[in-house]
Amino acid sequence: MTFSRPLLFGGAIIALLSAVYATFHLGANQQSNPTVNRSEINVLRKGDMKKLIFAPQPLALVKTPFIDETKNNKFFSDYKGKYVLVNFWATWCVPCRREMPSLDELQKELGSDTFEVVTIATGHNHLPAIKNFFKRAKITNLPILLDPNQDLAQEMSIFGLPSTVILDPSGREIARLRGDAEWSDGNAFAIISALVASEGS
Q1: CA angle at residue 67 from 194 to 8, to 5 degrees?
Q2: What percent of the chain has pLDDT over 90?
Q3: Taking the CB of residue 88, how many other CB atoms lie within 10 A of it?
Q4: In this predicted structure, what is the pLDDT of residue 6?
């Protein structure tokens, strides 16, 4: 079963589901995420990063596969040992296209064996269209990955695009940001750097 565009942006029902998800899974409360220093991270949540909501506890590893451009299966477990910023997007999504250069810059500046940006085109996205967009936008540091039937998006309750999820080195979701953001500014860099540093502390 695939999502249609109206379902991805589906009005009141989607808004309600998003609110419920945020309340029970990603809502801020007094519990601390054991993988990060919450007080340090909260100080860094400025600008667009105010939309980044940390889960009270890491969520379970999602085992649903996605594919690369040669249709080989990929799994979040493939990235074990590093923090991963997973961005769900689509070629027809204007905000998705708008934020992609900043994600490319984030990967260029901070990508390492402890951090990686992973971009997954979900839904109906033709591979030539993705490649053409990457070429026009001069995206050179991001992977082409696909979730053609939106199985992964559905499993992770992705209700709108773009949506960005941060995974810890065990592949568990620890934070989520709905909507587009500026990922190449100092606020985003500081948060990612703090996360990576917390793993080694």
Answers
A1: 75
A2: 77
A3: 26
A4: 40
Distance CA 54, CA 37 (A): 11
- Give the count of beta carbons closer than 10 Å to the beta carbon of residue 92: 13
Please give the share of the chain, as a percent, with pLDDT higher than 70.
Answer: 81
Please tell me the predicted confidence (pLDDT) of residue 200: 64
What residues contact residue 125 under an 8 Å CB cut-off, 6+ apart?
90, 91, 92, 146, 148
93-105: pLDDT as tens digits: 999 999 999 999 9
Pick the CATH number of 5-200 from 3.30.2090.10, 3.30.365.10, 2.60.120.10, 3.40.30.10: 3.40.30.10
Element (H, E) at 100: helix 94-110
What pTM value is reported for the model? 0.83
Taking the domains of the chain in order of start, what are their residue ranges? 5-200
* Cα-based distances in Å from 140 to 95, 104, 105: 19, 7, 9
